[in-house]
């Protein structure tokens, strides 16, 4: 059987073929745009490097509410012999640049520009008295110790300088990334077009939630689960279930939709049964069907299908947990890699088993579980691939590698977080 790493590599290579078609789009960055069209901004990936149009901070500013001073004026200050300075006019955030007179203390608010001539800020609570004087009052303030040059000053360009790479191609855009773009004054970013995915869940037995089931029929969980999974990494999904075990019906759907699609993902019909609709439809059209040494999710398919033009097809097994685990192990990293994301795999973390359990030595097992505050990993539900509720209650997928048949309590195991 193929290893999980070998299959992931091949699927990544296949899906990577769509990368060139995911041309750049320009995405406006503003609060109005995000609130008016939030769907445009979820799970986007930068198409190219973005250079900062300005420096952050743009000017030296105060990190604290306090007094701007010239550090040399306080060189002799001690608790027993404090230095007294007259108080100058107050500076607030947004005020024009000002000049600091030597031998004075300038009240300054957080974020306000440090006046020219001052080189440090002393927090107001470190002054005597620890309050700002009334604006019209003639007042003085005492300081009982020296201050180092640069204290509590945010230096211009200390976060980023103008012309420096602000965000690199392949960055996934979230709140901090959009925020720093806006903070530098940029109004747009180039993003990769969303991959257009045709998702086809298959099975004569599947019906839409809310419909009346006949004996032997089941509600279609895979369409909803895989649509949500694909959307969570930035895909635009067209979901059209095939409620038939006839290969001609499946091909009719895929051929009809293929001209506007980057990738076809099917669910179900990949095993070795008598009526495997996906295998029947695609095996003679360039799609390989093989067994991967992973549990759940052993039966897998992938290839460039002639429809009649070549279209990449990834075929997942039909049990709901198998489909979601296969998405995590193979499809998610492949699509993120095609988008240019530099770290497409989930972070591999380490914990210890909370209890003993068995695992098939011939397969890389991915078990559902939760991680406790002490780092121990507790499995949720059994290994069977139909236990979707167990998956819904889980926050991690626990890795048990090939060759391990028994895990004892406190054994170290790797895991992926799947709750974010």
UniProtKB/TrEMBL annotation:
Superkingdom, taxonomy of origin: Bacteria
One Pfam short name: MoeA_N
UniProt xrefs under InterPro entries: MoaB/Mog-like_dom_sf, MoaB/Mog_dom, MoeA-like, MoeA_C_domain_IV_sf, MoeA_linker/N, MoeA_linker/N_sf
Pathway in which this enzyme or protein is active: Cofactor biosynthesis; molybdopterin biosynthesis
This enzyme's EC code(s): 2.10.1.1
Top EC class for this record: transferase
Gene3D superfamilies reported for this sequence: MoaB/Mog-like domain, MoeA, C-terminal, domain IV, Molybdopterin biosynthesis moea protein, domain 2, Molybdopterin biosynthesis moea protein, domain 3
Cofactor: Mg(2+)
Stated family: Belongs to the MoeA family.
Protein purpose: Catalyzes the insertion of molybdate into adenylated molybdopterin with the concomitant release of AMP.
The protein's name: Molybdopterin molybdenumtransferase
Biological source species: Herbiconiux aconitum
Lineage, broadest ranks: Bacteria, Bacillati, Actinomycetota, Actinomycetes, Micrococcales
